[in-house]
Amino acid sequence: MTTRTTVVASEGAPDPMATTAPVLEVEHLRVVFRQGEKTTYAVNDVSLSVPLGRTLAVIGESGSGKSVMSRALMGLLPTTATITGSVRLLGQEILGLPENDLRQRRGKDMAMIFQDPTRSLNPTMKIGTQIAENIRIHEKDVSRKEAIARAVELLRVVRVPAPDRRVEEYPHQLSGGMRQRVMIAIALACQPKLLIADEATTALDVTTQAQVMDLLLDLQQQFGMSMILISHDMGIAATYADDVAVMYAGDVVERAPVTELFGHVRMPYTRMLLDAVPRLDRPAHALIPVTAARPPDLSKAATSCRFAARCPRVQDDCLQTHPPLEEHEDKHAWACFHPIPLERTSA
Amino acid sequence: MTDTADPILEVKNLVQQFHVSGGTVHAVSDISFDIRSHETLGLVGESGSGKSTLARAVLQAPSPKSGEVWFRGHDMTKQSKKELFETRRHIQTVFQDPFSSLDPKWTVRAIVREPLDAYGVGTRRQRAEKVDAILDMVGLDPTSFGNRKPPQLSGGQCQRVAIARALALEPSLLIFDEVVSALDVLTQAHILNLLEKLREELQISSLFVAHDLALVKQVSDRVAVMYLGRLCEIGPAQSVLARPRHHYTAALVEAIPLPDPKNRDERRGNVVAGEVPSPLAPPSGCPFRTRCPAAQALCAAEMPPLTSMGPDHFVACHFPVAENALPASVVTAAAA
């Protein structure tokens, strides 16, 4: 297993911060929505940690709970949500903080960018004013003029061409890729320690997506940020993340450093998801191995494995007990009683 | 293109333009290609490349500004409304958004039966039987789904209904416009498997329009790449995507985030710069020259014609990518 250790160690660069506390620590996070008679168990007992300067990709399909989880971290869920567990940002518990305190942390310590920049930007306000406003919310002593100057600088940092002209423009005058850069500039305005990108490049074309992802990785190094990439795209995880967590029906079902995860998939759901991704190396007209099933019922708390109904490796115990996420190997955790044996998983 | 092994559709010098307040949108500029019997031609390009406009111009919805579209011995651009109605029976389309392309108040059976009613196919009873048989074929049990309405269906199920409707008239050409882009990856896999099954069983030819290169590679025999209204490259999927000769195709292939972390450092940070210019004012000459690493003065002066690069492989580039110029990691991934 020497080769494997080398691979893991070489990726994500040396980690001098390994000994310091993680930027974000999530423990036993649960989110339950109650609306009238209807209960939805959206996130179940999720524990994650993001060390300084590292990127965690949270991968899942729609309904997996990945976006609900990220909004829970940011304190952006509606009041119908009951959130329990613990979320520590830079060592301080932020779950249950009053809205005012939380608002101070958002933007300053952690920021988020979303899929659709058109809906996040104010169409009636100049780009520069929107960035400047965000700076002045967190730094009261900064003058308007100074804030605009910093906005120009930020646009330069996110590689928007002709930034001094762009600050005077409105969102509709920019392309989708440029608008997402503006969102990144706003998110970076106060140099957060943690940036959450929720499907931030999903709506972009593939070349623009690559440009924005490269930019995010550069900025991460420059500012020493940690990042969480929320995505449905296994390619994004494989290409840009240091660590990967795969979610299914509200559970994290597998979690490992990126090379370990893609090299030795253990959870059958991860395997199925990976096999379903269109690939350049699959022969034309090849069928994709995927089993049909109804989406899992999230109105009841899990009493069995949520993936059992479509799992090719299902056995009796999967239907009786909910498998917990446990670290079975160094840094590699999975929630499965009958994981794929090692020799058969290498890609 | 000399090799015309039995084309079912031939598009010649197609041009589509739209007049807007800011000027003229050059959506499709002088495009020629064919689709052969029993083949799937993939059409890729980023948003604004004109790929959907091209697909619609083929259907004469709306008719192109100039050019010819030959199907079953007729130039569709010259056909009368009545003749077109007959031709369209053989060309059916499935669009990206199943929710907006299906009437929410109609039952699944009524939706699939509608084209049969419109063309007066068979007796009432024969039509009803046919509808159930097609629903079965697309994997929807007619007894449990036949009387449901679109809002009671998932995205994948809606897309199956749309496919069933397209199959009702037994078309010889299907046009798929981003049919799986809105679906989750597992649902997408199910629909792709269904399309493969139908292709095998019904021997249909199709035009598969999508922005996802890997997806197109998986379903297509040949691939055409569009940029800013022009055809850059067309040829066998294998050679176009494993050994692209147009710099834009190469840039697209390199930008795909592969689901494999191996060699990712050499893939990252190697992205083509810049943005797609406005179709209101496309660059002179080659439309990609403003972003192309190999651009020279000639590229601004003259639009490069499609030139043969190998068996059935054509490229519109004055200075094509050298063979095997892509990083080995990308080539091996695409060549398998």
Task: Write structural notes for this entry.
- Chain A has 347 residues and is an alpha/beta fold.
- Chain A folds into two domains: 6-13 and 20-241, P-loop containing nucleotide triphosphate hydrolases (Rossmann fold, 3-Layer(aba) Sandwich); 248-279 and 288-334, no CATH class.
- Chain A has helices at residues 2-10, 66-74, 99-108, 117-120, 127-138, 144-157, 163-166, 176-188, 206-223, 234-240, 258-263, 268-276, 316-320, and strands at 24-35, 38-50, 55-59, 81-89, 92-93, 110-113, 194-198, 226-231, 243-248, 251-257, 326-329, 332-334.
- An eight-stranded mixed sheet of chain A has the order 6-7-8-3-9-10-12-11, with helices on both faces. In chain A, strands 2-1-4-5 form a four-stranded antiparallel sheet, with helices on one face.
- Chain B is 35% helix and 23% strand.
- In chain B, the strands form two sheets. An eight-stranded mixed sheet of chain B has the order 6-7-8-3-9-10-12-11, sandwiched between helices. Chain B has a four-stranded antiparallel sheet with strand order 2-1-4-5.
- In chain B, strand 9 and strand 10 form a beta hairpin.
- The longest helix of chain B has 18 residues, at 185-202.
- Chain B is globular, with a radius of gyration of 21 Å.
- The chains are: A alpha/beta (347), B alpha/beta (336).
Explain briefly what this protein structure is.
By secondary structure, chain A is an alpha/beta fold. In chain A, 35% of the residues lie in helices and 22% in strands.
Notable features of this structure?
heterodimer, A: 347 residues, alpha/beta, Rossmann fold, 2 domains, 8-stranded mixed sheet, 4-stranded antiparallel sheet, 22% strand, globular, disordered N terminus, B: 336 residues, 14 helices, 23% strand
